Fold this protein.
Amino acid sequence: MLEVGADPIQFSDVHCSISGREILKGITLRVMRGEIMGILGRNGAGKTTLLSLISGLRSQGSGTITVLGASLPSHEAEFRRRMGFVLQEDALYQELTVLENLEFSASLYEVQQARERILEVLDVLGLSDRENQVVSTLSGGLKRRTAIARAFLHDPDLFIIDEPTLGVDADARHAVWAYLRLLKSRKKTVVVATNYLDEALALCDRVAVLETGRILAVEEPRELVRRTGSCIDVECDEPTAQKIASGLIEVKQVIRAEVTLSGVSLFLARGARPDEVMGQFSRYGSIEGFRLRAPDLSEVFKSFGQRP
Amino acid sequence: MSQTPRALVAGMKAELRRLRRSRLLLALVLVQAVTFILLVTLFGLTGAFAPTIVVNNDHGPQAQILINALQNDHHSFSLTFMDNATMAKQLVVKGDYVALIVIPAGFSQGIAAGNTVPVSVFIDNINTDMTSDIERAVPSAILSFGEVNGFGGISTTVAETDLYPHDTSFIDYMVASALVLDTLIIAGTLSALSVAEEFESKTAKMLAVSPVHPLVPLVGRIMATAAVSAGAIAATVFIALFSYGIMPDFPLEMLSILVFCVVIFSCVGAALGAIMKKSLPVAMLVLGIALPLFLFSGSYEPQRFDGNLIWLASHFSPEYYAVGLMEHAVFNLTVTPEPLMILALTLVGFGAGALALARFFSGRGFL
């Protein structure tokens, strides 16, 4: 059983190899109860392998892992009942309806008053009007929501989700985020693997930055942005974009400028003040608008001295 | 209900719902069951009852005796009667018939007078198999004809002692063993597909992180495919009974063996599905191994037609044991040296071994 006050997930110097290739190299990590922990990394960084270890789908080569008080690998049914897992793939029965998929899962996890619980989860995830729709006919976003509904059906203490918004539209993305925030409000522990920094910013209390099987840093997302700097997307015509790019790259706060289809993106140095940069736009022509946003992942890795 | 039976029932329910929405697959399963039993017996059917025209220019009593002898020659001729030999010959040339037998005018009179009367036979010798059948069958019919007439020169007596109290038609024998082949293909393919799809759709991973062992809901799914397979096999049994006219000596035993085989072969399919993890290759594999194993199993005849090596190899196939049980149930034949109980127990062993393999290969280490 989970000890009171103990961290739900503890990794200590964990190594894991697949087909002779070392995927995780000495991971040490603690995830606290009731927090949303982001695992941020590019494709192939080892995010999915890390989640597979937590879920018990894989075993570590060396090191110790404790999840919900159990030393892994653990095959205890009670341990599995306290965990909800959403794979990168939706892993739904395509020929069954949304309701039938959830009923099947409810049977495996012995969900009490299954029908009521299913309707409640469907309602929270905005799937009430889709319960009798066959999964193969759903959009990507709705399938993702169904997969999340299935993982939360048995009200787990620990919720693991791999790429929550991979391939879903903006509406579905916000619905998934809202749901994960709801889990946090219910003191559930959530581990999210993503390669979108804005997703980590929007959701996570802390982020572990993973690169080629090593954790580069574990910190709050805003600290990550502060370390990396922010980005301004400027909407303007192409001649103005060219002028802004060539003019502002000389300014020390701007470390990179990229002309885009809609204007220009300016990547600011760590500690730079965006308002000072924005005040200079008028020198190069008129602009149609701008947006301050988090930098992309390549900037994050650059800030850690990694290749962009 | 405790967790394991609940997961078992959930798996079965999910599979039945899935199959209910796959009507084309169900229809094709039924078609496959029927076509395979026809395919296996086609060999015997095409080799028997050579379509033959008889032109009877005599119409006397001896001609009728000869025609009766031809008709009674076991599995040899399917006779059609015509008056015009020229037109009949054209039909043979065209390929509609294999042979033409012309009974000349004055045949009965000549035989009654003790003369030798030539009967002309025109054969489409496009392949030696059919030609040889005709060449053997005509003298055989003439022998019968001679016995009816009491011709001293050709009368024969055979001191025959039969192993079995009844003869069994070759085609009937094959139909009984073909039911076993059908069961392996239908039950094996359906369960193999069901299990392989779990891996293809990654739902096996979701089963692996659930509180029950993945095999439990998989067994539930296999139970559902076995029920559907049993339905398809029932259609082939119907054909065997009412189209081929086979009346089993032990009907209840036959039905029990078929249900037993559906269960065992479903387990074999599940093991193959868990090992292969891909639906298309595993479907091809089941089809690919079912036919050779069927032929090796002595399904065409009880004799060890190719020597002991193949017969020994056939012991590795569950079809060998199933055919042995089926031939006993349908025709009261003993076609294997092993007693029935050993055959049944060996099949149970195949089923248990297959389930153990399915359990191993659906474990968390193979996802």
Q: What stands out?
A: Strands of chain B lie at 50-56, 77-82, 99-103, 120-123. The CA atoms of residues 53 and 88 of chain B lie 7 Å apart. The interface with chain A takes residues 3, 6-7, 9-11, 13-14, 17-18, 21-22, 201-203, 205-212, 217, 364, 367 of chain B (CB under 8 Å). The mean pLDDT of chain B is 84.
